[in-house]
Amino acid sequence: MKLSDIGEFGLIHRIAPHFLQNQPDDVRGIGDDCAVLPLNETESQLITTDMLIEDIHFLRDGITARQLGYKSLAVNLSDIAAMGGSPTAAFLSFGLPEDIPVEWLDDFFAGLAELSQKSCTPLLGGDTTKSMDRIIINIAVLGRARSDRIKYRSTAQIGDVICVTDFLGDSGGGLNIILQDINAEMNPNARQLVQAHCQPDPQLQEGAWLATYDAVHAMLDVSDGIESDIRRIMEESRVGARINVDDIPISTALRSLAEQFGWNAIEIAATGGEDYCLLCTICPRDFPVIARHFEKKFARPLFKIGIIEKEGALAYYQNSTLIHFARHGWDHFRMK
Ligand code: ADP
Ligand code: MG
Asked: Which of 164, 214, 302, 304 would bridge 294 by S-S if both were Cys, CB 3.0 to 4.6 A apart?
């Protein structure tokens, strides 16, 4: 059997059991957006790490060095946001080919420093090594959160409203533009999508705000696409989910480009990934009030896209009819 037969998540399921023995009750290891360790009586330490590899996660010609520096930190901060925490420090491990221009590196660090300052996440160390011909970036971020407010993937409840904090699919559309070599410069919609793909903003404020509500039961960040990410909540919480595809929020920019280029906007929104907004499940009784306050605070809706159901399949409905997508969310080792 090969890795491609079990996929990324199959591998994670094989790793986890080896390390569960003797894990204290107040420690969360493999299985959520961050690991959680007790820090003191009231607070916990959050730890997350993510790797970006040239030609797998990015093309050197498809993203500027400055954007890549920003994005490398953003994808990690997004996992801190997903737990409802605040970041405290970052570490960068860098594999670099020896012919990389120093100007490229200066731009990379300018982008990284921009988000580091904006998010109060100082870079406190790392490691640098030579790589054969590809750039390898691994960032680890530490954060903290009040222990009683941390949001996990494992705490969704039957009947919860499933919602997302932003439009879905802009990043996936941006990737299409890059891969199809569409000139985005003269087209503001295309520029918006490429920006969403190349320089996502982690939703730290939204995550910390949602975490103050006990009625917000489970949360994660949308990194692989809701098609895949909702399954993580379903597995960890042992529940099912029903999504109404007409409620999936799609920006006018993505809608109009999808029409122009014949893309399936809903499929991109559900499976494209790298949106880095938050998906949470909320007690249905409290949802209307939380949604109203969210809209007042963040000047956009908290989009309701579905309902948590009893354990079972992930079901998509359009006009009360069950539908299926051709593509699934991103899994590194499975064929798409
Ligand atoms: P995210 O997309 O939020 O970064 P993933 O869904 O990729 O998280 O990962 C799920 C869980 O598996 C996380 O808790 C992560 O720490 C863990 N994980 C992923 N790869 C490994 C690995 N090689 N060794 C140990 N744990 C891993
Ligand atoms: Mg995550």
From this structure: 302
Q: Which protein residues have a CB closer than 5 Å to ligand 2 (ion)?
A: 33, 79, 221, 223
Q: Is 50 in the pocket of ligand 1 (CB under 6 A)?
A: yes
Ligand 1 neighbourhood includes 38 CB (under 6 angstroms): no
Runs of H (alpha helix) within the chain: 3-15, 65-83, 102-118, 170-179, 188-198, 204-211, 226-237, 252-261, 265-271, 287-298
32 CB less than 6 Å from ligand 1? yes
Please tell me the distance from the alpha carbon of residue 247 to that of residue 318, in angstroms, as a whole number. Answer: 9
Q: Which ligand is nearest to the CA of 11?
A: 1
Handedness of CA 63, 69, 75, 77 (dihedral sign): negative
Q: What is the pLDDT along the chain (336 residues), one digit of tens a residue?
A: 999 999 988 999 899 899 888 889 899 989 999 999 999 999 999 999 999 999 999 999 999 999 999 999 999 999 999 999 999 999 999 999 999 999 999 999 999 999 999 999 999 999 999 999 999 999 999 999 999 999 999 999 999 999 999 999 999 999 999 999 998 888 999 999 999 999 999 999 999 999 999 999 999 999 999 999 999 999 999 999 999 999 999 999 999 999 999 999 999 999 999 999 999 999 999 999 999 999 999 999 999 999 999 988 899 999 888 988 776 666 666 644
Closest C-alpha to ligand 1, atom 10: 31
- Which one-letter DSSP state was computed for residue 19? G
Query: How do strand 278-282 and strand 321-323 relate by DSSP bridges?
Result: unpaired
Q: Domain residues of the chain, as ranges?
A: 31-149, 153-323
Residue among 3, 6, 12 to mutate when testing ligand 1 (max atoms within 8 A of CB): 12
Provide the residue type at 266 as one letter.
I
Instruction: State the pTM of this model.
Output: 0.95
Quick one: which atom of ligand 1 is closest to the CA of 79?
3
CATH superfamily assigned to domain 31-149: PurM-like, N-terminal domain (3.30.1330.10)
